[in-house]
């Protein structure tokens, strides 16, 4: 009987962890991975979204330069572009959650999160 209880406990823990990982909306897991577009160098991005907070710098540049600026900036692992402004971000993996923003787009550098265990 103890082994059944142990197995049930392990299943519950794994299910709970799985739900927490899926709840991290910005990070691709399961079905969410297919939502992201891929651009040069493997950068993932989506239209109509924002990653609020965690700004390290911002500048007024065209949307097509925002991802490259993040790649070239030390500490940047994600970005949002809204109304002509590129917001470079350093977001902990557990806080990478996107919100709707009809005036912009957001993206992240998957290789900057690979050590977190969220992205393989």
TrEMBL record:
<protein>
    <recommendedName>
        <fullName>Apple domain-containing protein</fullName>
    </recommendedName>
</protein>
<feature type="signal peptide">
    <location>
        <begin position="1"/>
        <end position="26"/>
    </location>
</feature>
<keyword id="KW-0732">Signal</keyword>
